[in-house]
């Protein structure tokens, strides 16, 4: 069976790290993902998807992501059936994150970029190439 989900969107609120009674880290957050299709004359719609992350993934999310941060998530869908306080049968659907990644930067509008990662792009204009041999493109002796 296959149950794999890949999402990219923005956090709708700051994630809050919690710990289970047995000491396991967990964080719950919500990601807003724009839909691909837009009906003519209407605004683009978004889906708001609940996500749970456990252990090191939870600690990573709580440390580096904030409301508005762009995030990429790989995980699986998990459903739970329950009865609410009024006796109505309900179903909850959420994504359990296996891996999360940064997407974009603070300049792209993500408010949660960590300044520790904000390093200038490397410049190769003044690089020392003395250790490299020049590639000669000599195709004359190739049989094709």
Topology (elements, then pairings):
Elements: E1 5-11, E2 16-19, E3 25-34, E4 46-54, H1 55-64, E5 70-83, E6 89-102
Notes on the structure:
With 144 residues, the protein is mainly β. Helices cover 7% and strands 40% of the residues. The protein has one helix spanning 55-64; strands at 5-11, 16-19, 25-34, 46-54, 70-83, 89-102. It has a five-stranded mixed β-barrel with strand order 1-3-4-6-5. Strand 2 and strand 3 (25-34) form a beta hairpin. The chain starts with a strand and ends in a 42-residue tail after the last strand. 16% of the residues are buried. Mean pLDDT is 82; it is low at 109-127.
Major β-sheet profile: 5 strands, mixed, barrel
Please state the oligomeric state of the protein chains shown: single chain
Structural class: mainly beta
Shape call: extended
Query: Which percent band covers the strand fraction?
Result: 35-45%
Helix content class: under 10%
What is the topology, as strand order, of the major beta sheet? 1-3-4-6-5
| Rg estimate, integer Å | 23 Å
Order of helices and strands: EEEEHEE
Structure in a nutshell:
With 144 residues, this protein is mostly beta strands. 7% of the residues lie in helices and 40% in strands.
Features:
single chain; 144 residues; mainly beta; 5-stranded mixed beta barrel; 1 helix
């Amino acid at each position: 069976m296959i149950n794999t989900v890949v999402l990219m969107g923005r956090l709708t609120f700051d994630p809050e790290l919690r710990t289970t009674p047995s000491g396991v880290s967990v964080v719950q957050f919500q990601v807003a993902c724009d839909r691909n299709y837009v009906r003519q004359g209407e605004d683009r719609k978004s889906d708001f998807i609940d996500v749970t992350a456990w252990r090191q993934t939870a600690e990573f999310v709580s440390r580096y992501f904030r409301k508005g941060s762009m995030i990429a998530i790989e995980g699986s869908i998990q459903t739970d059936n329950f009865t609410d306080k009024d006796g109505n049968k309900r179903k909850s659907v959420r994504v359990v994150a296996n891996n999360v990644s940064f997407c974009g930067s603070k300049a792209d509008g993500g408010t949660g970029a960590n300044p520790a990662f904000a390093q200038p792009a490397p410049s190769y204009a003044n690089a020392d190439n003395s250790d490299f041999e020049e590639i000669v493109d000599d195709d004359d002796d190739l049989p094709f």
